[in-house]
Amino acid sequence: MNDVPAPLPPSAQEIADVIGRDRALFLIGQLPVSGARSWRRVVYIPKRMPLDHPLVALMGWHDAEKLRRTFGGEILQPSNCNCVARAWRNRVICSMAADGDDVVAIADAVSSTVWVVRKVIAGNAPEDAARGMADDAGEEACIEDQMKRTRKRRQVAA
């Protein structure tokens, strides 16, 4: 099985660059949905971080302080990182299929449907084929906007 982790979306990678990949994925998994955009999460990073702040309780003071120093005063809207979970699921499905496991047992093991397992084994994961161009275009626009803000913030800090 390929143990190379799936790359993070840029909006999540900038958080991972500060606190590490595992901690960033943990944080993003705990965040609420950003309005009607279910593919985004939202968190406000305050300029001042009191010890009783929810972010300190969730991440610990050291990671919360790293986030405050980097993103203080900003509202972050990272991707939900479902692509990472999908990549892991697909690797597990392929590995179990190579070991000769039954399709129903694989579906139960990865909490998915038999249809999804069969599609992954056949080489056409349903999320990849069903993903519309409009979603890609919208995500690309969000990513580009986030990158512009990041570049601007780094120029101001320099």
Q: Overview of this structure, please?
A:
The chain is mainly alpha-helical. The chain folds into two domains: 10-80 and 132-157, no CATH class; 83-124. The protein is built from nine helices and four strands; from the N terminus they run ααβββααβααααα. It has helices at 10-19, 21-30, 54-59, 61-71, 82-98, 103-109, 114-122, 126-130, 133-157, and strands spanning 33-34, 37-41, 43-45, 74-76. The protein has a two-stranded antiparallel ribbon with strand order 1-2. A two-stranded antiparallel sheet has the order 3-4. Helix 1 (10-19) packs across helix 2 and helix 6 packs across helix 7 (114-122). The longest helix is centred in the C-terminal third of the chain and has 25 residues, at 133-157. The model is unreliable at 128-143 (pLDDT under 50).
Task: Give a topology summary.
Elements: H1 10-19, H2 21-30, E1 33-34, E2 37-41, E3 43-45, H3 54-59, H4 61-71, E4 74-76, H5 82-98, H6 103-109, H7 114-122, H8 126-130, H9 133-157
Enumerate the strands of the largest sheet in spatial order, edge to edge or round the barrel. 1-2
What is the succession of H and E elements? HHEEEHHEHHHHH
Overall 3D geometry?
A: elongated
Global structural class: mainly alpha
- Arithmetic mean pLDDT: 81
Helix content: 55-70%
